[in-house]
Amino acid sequence: MNRTVYVCCGTGCLANNSLDVYRELKRLIEEHEVDADVKTIVKATGCNGLCEKGPLVKIEPDNICYSKVKASDVKEIVEKTLINGQIVNRLLIFDTAQGKKVISHKDTDFYKSQQKIALRNIGEIDPANIDDYIERGGYEALSKVLFQMTPEGVISEIEKSGLRGRGGGGFPTGRKWRQCCNVNYFPKYVICNGDEGDPGAFMDRSILEGDPNTVIEGMIICAYSIKSHRGFIYIRDEYSLALKNMDCALRQARERGYLGKNIMNSGFDFDIEIVRGGGAFVCGESTALMQSIEGNVGEPRAKYIHSVEKGLWGQPTVLNNVETWANVPEIIMKGSDWFSSIGTENSKGTKVFSLVGKVKNTGLVEIPMGTTLRELVFKIGGGIIGDKKFKAVQSGGPSGGCIPESLMDLPVDFDTLKNIGSMMGSGGMIVMDERTCMVDVARYYLNFLSEESCGKCVACREGIKRMLEILTDICNGKGSEEDLDLLESLCHTVEEASLCGLGKTAPNPVLTTLKYFKDEYYAHIRDKRCPAGVCPELTEYEIDEKLCISCGLCAKNCPASAIWGEKGKPYYINTESCVKCGNCLDSCKFNAVGVKKGARL
Amino acid sequence: MKITIDGIFCEAEKGEMLLQIARRNNIYIPTLCHSDALPGLGTCRLCVVEILDRGRKGVVASCIYPVKNEIEVFTHSDKIKSIRRNLLMLLYARTPQDETIDSLRKEYHVPDNIRFSGDKDEHCILCGLCVRACQELGTSAISTVNRGITKKVSTPYDEPSTQCIGCGSCAYLCPTNAIKIEEINGVRTIWNKEFRLVRCTRCGKPFATKEQLEYNRKKLGEDHVELLCESCKKAVTGEKLRDIYERV
Fold this sequence. Notes:
The complex is a heterodimer.
Chain A: E1 3-8, H1 11-15, H2 18-32, E2 40-45, E3 57-60, E4 64-66, H3 74-84, E5 93-95, E6 100-102, H4 109-112, H5 130-135, H6 140-148, H7 151-161, H8 173-182, E7 189-194, H9 203-210, H10 212-226, E8 230-236, H11 240-255, E9 271-277, H12 286-294, E10 317-321, H13 322-334, H14 336-340, E11 350-357, E12 363-368, H15 373-380, E13 390-395, E14 402-404, H16 414-419, E15 428-433, H17 438-452, H18 458-475, H19 481-497, H20 501-505, H21 508-516, H22 518-525, E16 541-543, H23 553-557, E17 563-564, E18 572-573, H24 583-587, E19 593-595
Parallel strand pairs in A: 1-2, 7-8, 7-10, 8-9, 11-15
Antiparallel strand pairs in A: 1-3, 3-4, 5-6, 11-12, 13-14, 13-15, 16-19, 17-18
Helix pairs in contact in A: 6-10, 6-13, 7-8, 7-10, 9-10, 9-11, 10-13, 17-18, 18-19, 19-21
Chain B: E1 2-5, E2 8-11, H1 18-24, E3 48-53, E4 56-61, E5 72-74, H2 78-94, H3 99-107, H4 129-137, E6 143-145, E7 152-154, H5 169-173, E8 181-184, E9 187-190, E10 193-199, E11 206-209, H6 210-220, H7 230-247
């Protein structure tokens, strides 16, 4: 029997030198000729999700997972585990929930609650090798579709599954395909939207990097059902590894006859080309993306006429997001009944979330729709770093809303998130703790959107600009209470009058913070105080004499040398030279440093 | 089919733009980025109206909204008025000295003491009509540059354009006269480029740039076009017609 060592080479792990680990493993295994009877193969895989603990090294079938592996650890792994069958204890993952180290990653709370459909192969295969994909059932769905199903059968299967677009809008995928199928002019196009631009979201990247073939297979299946012969995968240029792996996968698929003329000798033709995005966030909007493919400036158009009728070059076009495509082959193989048995009434299946921010287990998780936010943040995410107080979770990218503690028991699905003023978006989940200022958060996102709005329509361009102006003033202590009414009024105008989805959702961070965290706005305006101690103009730190043990850690971490003190006496902060970075507050282990209460100005 | 706009029954063709139907029926909807000569842009958003389509309410830009069903349209509901007021406040903040915007602002009772301030010399509202006109009538010499709040209209790298034929279509269509076009001593200056004007062979008035006439000649494929200014062209045609009638 073979033994396989999987080295995670997702972006997070690569940044932590997992490639060195991979090379070292290969070198040492060859050198030691590990176990003549057991052949050991080393594989570089896509992202395993638990980026926080990377680089991860998994050994199968032993079911061992090592975390934070460095090239210098490899010798020990080879000698102890691969040759002698012992476990290297110090490299095991420490599961915070159980309070102990676990041998297999599958035993951690992070993985236990997950159900992988879109991510099913990632971490288990070498994305640069199509045989790995085929070995795990890849292209079987395509074969089933081409030889056993009619285009109509494919569409109704996807319809019945209840799959909804994973890119943000949540439009029923099957209905989209059917509408396009019903339009009777040709050629038709199939597009994969891989222009993932939300800050903190990396699920599409992970799929493109770790399992490119599933996206290709999903697209071919759709092409067959709507009789399209040409497809495009739009990937942002910053995703160099995704571009490389996708290019490699397309080449291999073509060589094996899964793409190109006469696919699998079925008589059906379809080919895909990669288009590289130029870095505009707005090009993730479907109509802007199509403009970009056509070679025009990436500006959205109104969707009064849908892309399924007039899309790319004015032709009927189906555009879906990477994660949506990744779900398709699995639905075909396991059936719509299986898929629709997972999730909630109107949101079927699973959703991949990138869990980031002030949470212990940052990374990529795939959970059934309907899982509560609390479970996501506190069980899978392991709670807040440093056990600080949870404040909010921001879902759905820059145009999503901030969800407070009181709504944490709501199930995560398309409609629930929309009802509370946020959205699913592409699935970014940014966790914020008590050290986050919600006014500053709204300001941050609007600043992002003001730069990334295409600037085509007045409502979005000028509206966001002026809302940002108000928020900046509030953060600087120059806001007034009338500003809040104006802000809200502008929010509604931008929401109603903007041309595309970017503008229509841009006010969400402002509206939700105004709704759920209005006291913080009042603190900034009335008391001229930032309760979280973030806005520099409205923050002053102080050291509690009773709690300070004069360890000097705050002074050591202060970049402005603004903290003074001596052994045995409490330290003090010189407000004049303080730069309000908050290092002192974050570094104090005895909660002696705090944000000064009471009005400042 | 029939739709109602502000309670008035209007005859409409499927696919026809809402604004067009309203204008035909003398129903006023304010616009800035609209020109009858060009396809709708939907950028100024002033033409937004509320619609009731099979029980569902929505706000749409009437200049680019093709009528598909027998809908009810409201051009001046409270919601629409409030949206237009805010849009005009935003435009007024951007172009505080512009006359067109100022008169619209007064029409919608937006106070002149607003919270925001803008550049006194700014007149451009970035509606994109000039860019579209250049694309359709000229040579795509100008385009929008950058995005978001730094967006502007310009020639490539702000250099005098090698493509520009100085036809002035952009300036002619601009709703706020934001594009500077100057004619001094038979020289037209636009987009930092100077064009010598050709004189009308009949009245001697300088009327068009050499590049523009050359471009039109190529486009129309006519070799011997008489170089006449707009008013002389009219006069000559009139004379010809008179001759014909007199002979008859």
